[in-house]
Fold this protein.
Amino acid sequence: MKKPPGFYSSLGLLVLLNAIIKPLWIFAIDRQVQNVVGTENYGVYFSLLSLSVVLSFLADWGFTPFFNQRLAADRSFFEKLSGNFLLWKLLFALLYCLILFTAGFISGIRRWDILIYVTLIQVFTSLFVFLRSIITASQWFRADAWLSITDKTLMIIGCGTFLYFPALAGHMNIDRFLLLQTVFLGSSTIIAFLFLVKKGIKFIPQSNWLPSRNIIMQALPFGMVYLLMSTHSRIDAFLLERIHSNGAYESGIYAGAFRLLDASNMCGYLVASFMLPYIARRWSSQTEINSVILRCRHFLMMVAIGVIATGIFLGPWIQRVLYHHNDDYAVEVLRYCLAAMLGYSLVHIYGTALTATGRVVDFSWIVLISVLINSTLNLVLIPAYGAKGSCLAALCSQLFCGIVTMLYARQKIHTAVNIRSLLIYIFTGLLLAAFYYTFRSGPIPEWLLIIAAAGIVTSIMLLTRLAGIAQLIKAVRKQD
């Protein structure tokens, strides 16, 4: 039997493919949709999308990450319950739709067309993630890497036709944008399902298909983590649109900044999706995991430092290029929003490590406290500061969550903090600040400054051996 590709080669392919496709989606399609339909219209969509993401916990209840972890550690677990899990997912989807529509009615939502579309998008997303989790946990990493870009590739082609060739296809609007997302995401879900069927996976529910109390109690903590983390990262947009006197506009401004944060976090999401089954498998076999965690943290933290420095010093230029205006308020929101990436990066690494090693409940308590901090700050700051207040709330709560999670992981699963690397992070930030401050007003084009900054970050990682992964890859191959 052919040995599946190794973790690092497949992770590299995953990052490479997504580094090409997802920025195209975010900047060439999603950004352009906001420019075409207007800040306020997009703000309403972004607000309802955020609500649908927060409540999407109801479409899964933690069964997907629980299933992923258990499958990575025990293959026989999958063969017994795969059909049951798929049936549960379909039933959860119906429950999710019912509760989300009820929440929309209670909240006084008027754009039901948008709410229906974002609900379908979340249902397909949940099913797609579940099917991909089977592929990842089965160590078919390369297939998952290609599937990870399927939906976005289709949407780039479809939406791009309307955005850039309106004379041929017609003009873009919010409803058409959401319809295309729904169709292409549904198509990607079918592709993932057919791949698993071709691999011999049979989704046949057992006669006694109801989940046992034991499975529910084991899966629910994973669902609580997802609910709390999605609430932590997305509830602010919904609160903005509901609380602020000019909520739709403020939500649109926040969406423009959050888009860059989400794009910058792409590597974090990808690394975390691979780390979960990888660490779970090695933890169950009592294999060393510290080197993997540290290398992934170094990579994400150095990327975050580079992105934050670029946003602080080149914010006006970024705003002009992406949104065709130089709004000082929007630039300020952008700067505060990107600063939260440090906290996100730490949570990606150490939250995943705690989840993969069975410390799900402990991690849930940390995120719960962070959500309370975030929600309280949002309720206090939004009326007076709007989108900037939401960014400040996210910055404080995400840093709290990331630092506490890192320290807790050090105590419970004995991960290394590595003080030397923390000093390197600080040095890199100061060096980039000096670099941008010196050259940003000169004749050098901004895009060339960004390339130079990326070169500085890469050089520091190589010189300080933060990026010395060759030895680690060799060690991992020996373990495999």
